[in-house]
Amino acid sequence: MNYGELLNFLPQSLGFTLPDLMLLFTVLGCIILFAKDFKIGLMSLGMLLALEFIGFSLLGMETYKTLIAFLICLVLITLSLYTSGARQQIR
What we know:
Blueprint: H1 3-14, H2 18-29, H3 31-36, H4 38-59, H5 64-90
Helix pairs in contact: 2-4, 4-5
Protein backbone atom coordinates (compact mmCIF):
# COMPACT_ATOMS: atom_id res chain seq x y z
CA MET A 1 0.00 0.00 0.00
CA ASN A 2 1.58 3.26 -1.10
CA TYR A 3 1.11 6.73 0.41
CA GLY A 4 -1.75 7.77 -1.92
CA GLU A 5 -3.77 4.64 -1.18
CA LEU A 6 -3.23 5.06 2.56
CA LEU A 7 -4.29 8.70 2.35
CA ASN A 8 -7.59 7.69 0.75
CA PHE A 9 -8.11 4.52 2.83
CA LEU A 10 -8.23 6.22 6.23
CA PRO A 11 -11.05 8.72 5.52
CA GLN A 12 -13.04 6.18 3.50
CA SER A 13 -12.98 3.72 6.38
CA LEU A 14 -14.60 6.43 8.53
CA GLY A 15 -17.20 7.21 5.86
CA PHE A 16 -15.75 10.60 4.87
CA THR A 17 -13.87 11.96 1.90
CA LEU A 18 -10.44 13.47 2.50
CA PRO A 19 -11.54 17.13 2.05
CA ASP A 20 -14.49 16.61 4.42
CA LEU A 21 -12.22 15.12 7.07
CA MET A 22 -9.70 17.94 6.74
CA LEU A 23 -12.50 20.51 6.98
CA LEU A 24 -13.85 18.82 10.10
CA PHE A 25 -10.41 18.80 11.76
CA THR A 26 -9.93 22.48 10.90
CA VAL A 27 -13.21 23.49 12.52
CA LEU A 28 -12.62 21.28 15.56
CA GLY A 29 -9.09 22.62 15.94
CA CYS A 30 -10.34 26.19 16.17
CA ILE A 31 -12.68 25.38 19.05
CA ILE A 32 -9.78 25.99 21.45
CA LEU A 33 -9.38 29.50 20.08
CA PHE A 34 -13.14 30.07 20.20
CA ALA A 35 -12.98 29.35 23.94
CA LYS A 36 -10.40 32.11 24.40
CA ASP A 37 -12.19 34.78 22.36
CA PHE A 38 -14.90 34.52 19.73
CA LYS A 39 -13.31 37.06 17.36
CA ILE A 40 -9.87 35.44 17.54
CA GLY A 41 -11.45 32.07 16.82
CA LEU A 42 -13.39 33.41 13.85
CA MET A 43 -10.39 35.16 12.33
CA SER A 44 -8.12 32.15 12.72
CA LEU A 45 -10.84 29.89 11.29
CA GLY A 46 -11.21 32.28 8.35
CA MET A 47 -7.48 32.21 7.64
CA LEU A 48 -7.31 28.42 7.89
CA LEU A 49 -10.33 27.98 5.63
CA ALA A 50 -8.80 30.36 3.08
CA LEU A 51 -5.56 28.35 3.12
CA GLU A 52 -7.54 25.12 2.79
CA PHE A 53 -9.47 26.51 -0.17
CA ILE A 54 -6.24 27.53 -1.90
CA GLY A 55 -4.66 24.16 -1.18
CA PHE A 56 -7.68 22.19 -2.36
CA SER A 57 -7.96 24.20 -5.55
CA LEU A 58 -4.27 23.74 -6.32
CA LEU A 59 -4.53 19.99 -5.74
CA GLY A 60 -7.71 19.70 -7.81
CA MET A 61 -9.87 18.55 -4.91
CA GLU A 62 -13.49 19.50 -4.17
CA THR A 63 -13.68 23.11 -2.95
CA TYR A 64 -17.45 23.65 -2.69
CA LYS A 65 -17.85 22.85 1.02
CA THR A 66 -14.72 24.76 1.97
CA LEU A 67 -15.88 27.82 0.06
CA ILE A 68 -19.31 27.71 1.73
CA ALA A 69 -17.69 27.39 5.18
CA PHE A 70 -15.34 30.28 4.39
CA LEU A 71 -18.19 32.53 3.27
CA ILE A 72 -20.20 31.68 6.40
CA CYS A 73 -17.14 32.51 8.48
CA LEU A 74 -16.77 35.86 6.69
CA VAL A 75 -20.40 36.71 7.42
CA LEU A 76 -19.94 35.83 11.10
CA ILE A 77 -16.77 37.95 11.28
CA THR A 78 -18.63 40.88 9.75
CA LEU A 79 -21.53 40.53 12.18
CA SER A 80 -19.24 40.24 15.19
CA LEU A 81 -17.28 43.33 14.17
CA TYR A 82 -20.49 45.23 13.46
CA THR A 83 -22.01 44.45 16.85
CA SER A 84 -18.82 45.30 18.75
CA GLY A 85 -18.58 48.62 16.86
CA ALA A 86 -22.17 49.44 17.80
CA ARG A 87 -21.45 48.76 21.48
CA GLN A 88 -18.41 51.05 21.48
CA GLN A 89 -20.36 53.94 19.95
CA ILE A 90 -23.13 53.76 22.55
CA ARG A 91 -20.77 54.26 25.50
